[in-house]
Write a structure and sequence with these properties.
Layout (H helix, E strand, L loop, with lengths): L2 H15 L14 E2 H9 L9 H10 L5 E4 L2 E4 L20 E5 L4 H7 L9 E4 L2 H8 L7 E5 L1 H6 L4 E3 L4 E4 L7 E6 L4
Antiparallel strand pairs: 1-3, 2-3, 4-6, 5-8, 6-9, 7-8
Length: 186
């Protein structure tokens, strides 16, 4: 893992899961002062010389686009597990979204739908390939759920944009899961 990836993981941990551990307080939209984050990072030997330029480079070179810098503040786009919910702007989703999951969760999903579990939102992918990659984090042979996002939206389910490839929802009731298929069917 290169230094920019390590920095991205450290910042993701601080902004998504443990802001208090770093002495940070996120606002309701997940933003924190860039200077406060830099000060918190500099307390660790590895990041004692960190500068704003390093964060800018990390964000620009990242394929996953996990963070955003704006007006002297920084935030993580998605993945928060903090007790205070980060508010997102509702936005109409595409017709179909996808969710990769481990086989062991299928029974629960069929019964209860998709729930955020230890995160603040359910994470959905814009394409089946990304959903498969996500699903493989928990199962070498994940199942891909096809979500009828447009129907869910029309019936009151709220969706939010995480970034270019990640969509978020509070919940996805099982009635909006159109199909379930194995990764081998892609």
């Amino acid at each position: 893992m290169n230094e920019l990836e390590e920095l991205s993981k450290e910042i993701s941990y601080a902004l998504r899961h443990a802001p208090l551990e770093y002495g940070l307080m996120l606002d309701t939209n997940g933003w924190v002062s860039l200077e406060k984050l830099l000060d918190a990072l500099r307390r660790k030997e590895k990041w004692k010389n960190i500068r704003e330029e390093n964060l800018t480079e990390m964000i620009e070179k990242s394929e996953k686009k996990r963070h955003e810098l704006k007006d002297g503040k920084i935030r993580a786009f998605y993945g928060h597990s903090t007790p205070i919910k980060v508010l997102k702007e509702e936005i109409e989703p595409p017709e179909i979204l996808y969710h990769g999951t481990a086989r062991r969760f299928l029974e629960s999903i069929n019964k209860n739908g998709l729930l955020p579990r230890h995160r603040q939102y359910v994470h959905l992918s814009q394409d089946p390939e990304t959903a498969e990659i996500v699903g493989k984090r928990h199962d070498e042979k994940p199942f891909i759920l096809i979500i009828d996002a447009k129907k869910a939206w029309n019936e009151g389910i709220k969706f939010y944009k995480g970034n270019e490839q990640v969509w978020l929802a509070d919940i996805i009731p099982s009635r909006y899961i159109k199909e379930i298929y194995s990764h081998k069917m892609l």
